Each structure stands twice: as C-alpha cells, then as structure tokens.
Fold this sequence. Notes:
two-stranded parallel sheet; globular; Spore Coat Polysaccharide Biosynthesis Protein SpsA, Chain A; about 10% strand; 7-stranded mixed sheet
Amino acid sequence: MVRYDLISVVVPVLNEAASLAELYERTRRVLEGVQPFEFIIVDDGSRDDTLARVRALRAVYANISIISHYANHGKSLALMQAFAIARGEVAVVMDGDLQDRPEMIPRFLAQIENGYDLVNGWRQERRDRWGRRLVSALFNRLTARLLRCPLHDINCGFKALRRQVYRRLELRGDLHRLIPAIAAGQGFRVGEVPVEHCGRRFGRSRYRLLRHRGLLDIVAVLASNATQLRPFHVFSELALACWLVAVVALVGWLTLTVGVDPGALAARVCTPLVGMVGVGAALLGLLLPLFGFLLEMTACRVQDPHWREQLVKERVEADVSIYERGALPEGVSLRCRRQTVSEPDAEPVLVGEGAPDRWLDCPGHAAGSSEALGSRLR
C-alpha cells in the first residue's frame, strides 16, 4: 500500500455517542504506523453527549478535528464542512454507527493506488431489512440508467476520494447520495470495491423507506449537468419540443372542432383539454428560451478563470529554454535579445530556412555592437 503524506478520515455523526470511541480505536489500529491520518468528526447537531465524547477523545489524541453544528443541517452540509478543512491527499468517508468497518480502509486505498479518483463501497451482503434493500436496488438501477454511473451501491456512505475530487464537490440538500455520479460527470475515474457490512449495534436509521428526495436529487443533477455549459442551447431545444407539442395539439383541436359533433362526449371533454395542452406548450415554448438566455448570462459571470482552472486535469507547459544561446539549431546563432524602448518600431528579424551559418543582427546596428546585443529578436 502506498504511504501518503496524510489521509483524512471523515465521519459525520448525529447522536452517535456510544460508538465513537470504538470507531476511532479501530481506525487507529488499522492506520497507526502504516499511514499518517487525521480524524475529522462533524457533529451535526446531536442531542446526546456526542460532543462531550468527541472532546474527551480529542484530549487524548491530537489528530482529531471537531466541527459542531448548532442544529441538524443534513449529511451533505456536514461533509462540505469536513472537506473544507481536510488536508489529506485522500479522504475516506464513513458513517459513525460502525456498520462500516474501518478494517476495510486499506481496500479503498489500494484501489486509489490503482488509478481511481473515487472508490465507492459495495455492500454485497447488506445487514438491512428486505424493504430497504429493495428500494436501494431500484434506486441504484435508476441512477445507473439516468446518470450513467453503473455502480452496484451508489448510496453506500463508505468511500474514498482524492483531494482534487472532494475539493470540487458542491453538495446541497441530499446530494451526498450521488457523490459518485457527480464525480463521474466531472470526468473523474470512479470505481467500487466490495466491503463487509455489519448489523446496526447503536442508534437507529434516519433514512426513510420512500426516498422521494432521492428522485428529486437525480433530477437536480441531470439539470445541472445539462445546463452547466450551454444553458441557452438546452432550453432552446426544449422550447422546440414544446412547439412541436403545441402544433400537434392545434391539429388535434381543429380535428375535434371541425370533424366531431359538438354535442358528443368526446368533443365536450377532449376539445378543451387538447386546447389547454396546446396553449401551455406554446407558452413554455416562449418562456424557455428566455430562461436559457438568463442562465447563459449568469454562466458568463460564473465561468471565470478560476472556474476554468478547475476543469484542467493536467497541464504541461512548453520549455522555451531550448531557444537560449547554445540550444539553437546548428548553424544559427542568436545575438539579438530584446528590443530597446528607444526603437519600438524596429522591423523584426525573420529567421528562415535560408539563413544558415550566420549571426543574426538587428537592422540599424553594426554586427556585434552593444546596441545589437541589447535588441530583441521577434
């Protein structure tokens, strides 16, 4: 296993006082002497003595960082708070209820070493009720299809991320469920590793069986990915689709109005409905380009040099030192270095294939003069 300068173990907790001491001790036994680490605990508004237990641990172990919220704000914001202070080359995220085993951390680091930017856990044998497993399986299939992130267990809270990944995350609402899909959409390499899943020993689950917010998060990510770079194009294409619906509705309305007996049930019920659909689609066709134009103007302000820098994975700059004296092609020497302020309009000296074996001097100066040496070759 590669030894990093530092890794950050991030644990968001809510009313997990009973498990924190054991969680840290097991993590320390896995990493101590093998891998330097910091242990970041975010207390998201716990009502028990979680904060007191964390402070007691901090008094003994100096590598523990503590963030405490006044009230509960959700896991996404808790993770963002931890990522803001994390200093590790890799961040390992796990829950505080001991269902995630710290002994699995080396598996994640091994996959990171293999070139992955984010490694997600895969709970092959989940210790949860069948209803929760069924809902999770459906959610995984939906996200794999819509967000093109084919993971078996995207909602697993046990994961490892490189620094360039967790620094770029912007989590709101409940988007922590879709961290792998967000990272994949940004171009990072995402993988998964099987992990052991333990039964719940402390506390209770805070996730509902019906996760309607998860569906809303999928829609939010899809909309963000689609409109991040070309919002005006996307909304204009949607407007064209709306106008197509409006035209079809108009044809249907005219057919019902002219070709069907006005007293028939179909005419009385369908004609107004088709008309309303057509009018609504036409209104959307008018409004959507305006929304896209406004978003395009906003994107012009947001897509500044700092934003563009975040898109760069690697940059290799040219080595112009090869043009220094002694590194030029054979037979060509460089005598002109810079153009003085006193002659801003001097003609540049062009170096072509027909200039072998000669010294290059600037016009208006004698070859080898101090003025020529102080001039600039363009």
